[in-house]
Amino acid sequence: MTVTPLGLTRPASATDAFLRQLVARVPGSAGATWPLTEVYTGDVLVGLPQSTPSDIEQAFAVAREAQRKWAATPVKERLAVFKRAHALFVGNARTVADLIQVESGKNRRMAIEESCDPPMVMSHYLRRAAKLLAPVKRGGPVPLLTTSTEIRQPKGVVGIIAPWNFPFATGISDAVPALMAGNAVVLKPDNKTALSPLYGIRMLEEAGLPEGLFQVVCGEGPDVGPTLIDHADYVMFTGSTATGKVIGEQAGRNLIGCCLELGGKNPMIVLEDANLAEAVAGAVFGAFGNTGQICMHVERIYLPESRYDEFKDAYVARARALDVRAAYDFGPEMGSLVSPDHLRRVQSHVDDAVAKGATVLCGGKPRPDLGPAFFEPTILEGVTKDMLCGVTETFGPVVALYRYRTVDDAVALANDTDYGLNASVWGRNAAAARAVAARIESGNVNINDILATAYASKGTPSGGVKNSGVGARHGDQGLLKYTDVQNLAVLKKQVMSPRPGQAYEKYVEGMLSGLKMMRRLRIR
Ligand code: NAD
């Protein structure tokens, strides 16, 4: 147990020896390391090896070798690993939360919730994967004499690039369906948050995942990314829209598939008949949960004129009363931003808005007394599109309130953005709320919830539209995207060309009347 200068008791699991063991699997042949810090104090916890291009090539070579054996392992045996892993992940959730907290600075309530994501994904695909991966026999062009079978082949080695805001969820959960489908994985986590995914991989190996199959390389994105993408057979990327465009371009040049899960500027529309207490509670989580660093969180709240003041007063009062501080227990309602660098970005958005005429209703300032990257829960009004935070994602605990006159206005305002990741509509009349939801250009829309219902529905694909991404995670496509289809076609008798001596005209007549007959029989 380490007591830090702030009087914080660092979690018992974050010992030097344990952290050194975790990072030991990261290749770093040049000897360079990154100082991975405890966010609450800024203390260096461990030196994270930085991988060179040749380390990355070697990681792919080892993964490729392991993948051949893994792909030949029956699906049932592969899935058995994840049944055991599920129990290990749930049993060690508190250690996972410790690591997530030290490296990201989020509060413990969010850290423990994040620890639950990979087990939820495992549960879902343990039910679905065998069916999705089983060959599917389809009819061929000539009934009885031809067949076509859809066979799912793993892509090979999948490169996963993950952000810092949900390092365990994005690092491990996105790898689970890839591995189940018979692929190997090379993960590049963010340097700041490599510990929790490294622990996840250790648990997967304890559950029986073959060594070598899940590799980790570390480094700054632009240093590691190009070599990683050049060696990958598919790329799963989660991060900002700007980086997503770079990754998508390189994947396109290499003619490999990619899934890009990017940023958002997510609206919340409160309808006249909404339960205001619930909407306020939702907006507190939506804007300040994970210190505003959730891709699906809320940055724009649209309120009817008639309820604006009532909502604003209750919301500001709740935001001011939030328990914000550094602690490794379940007390605080909000934790730190991820780094002083990120704090400067959030601060710059607020300063820019204020300079251009926005009003700060609460918050707006860093809190160095709480730790190096703490920022107050901040509510603004009067935000316009000439302000940074009026158009681009702030990704911090900063939210703007807007009035609307008609529901049509609200929908138009909600859609007036380049992003389309998540939205929510709040109202007691479910049919009316659904009708509004249907008009919002967004990959996810929640009714009377901010994001958890959509994100935790692992059976439904979840992704962004517009500048928020390409492709989706979860649902059948969340696993099938990691496979190629092999169309295995069999011709049992040579009937698809004229018989010996048959005039071509006769053959064509037979073929055309066959087409008509099959249509009548609804065969094709
Ligand atoms: P980021 O794009 O800066 O970095 C994400 C990852 O990409 C990191 O591992 C980084 O090292 C790496 N990277 C950076 N440049 C790279 C390059 N040129 N080549 C290869 N890799 C590179 O994003 P961030 O600041 O770490 O994360 C926050 C962003 O992620 C926010 O915009 C948030 O909305 C988004 N996000 C989206 C989802 C989603 O599911 N849609 C989920 C979480 C976060």
From TrEMBL:
One of its GO terms (biological process) is gamma-aminobutyric acid catabolic process. Keywords: Oxidoreductase. CDD domains: ALDH_SSADH2_GabD2. Residues 34-487 form the Aldehyde dehydrogenase domain. It holds the Pfam family Aldedh. PANTHER family: CYTOPLASMIC ALDEHYDE DEHYDROGENASE (EUROFUNG), SUCCINATE-SEMIALDEHYDE DEHYDROGENASE, MITOCHONDRIAL. This is Succinate-semialdehyde dehydrogenase / glutarate-semialdehyde dehydrogenase. The lineage of its organism: Bacteria, Bacillati, Actinomycetota, Actinomycetes, Pseudonocardiales.
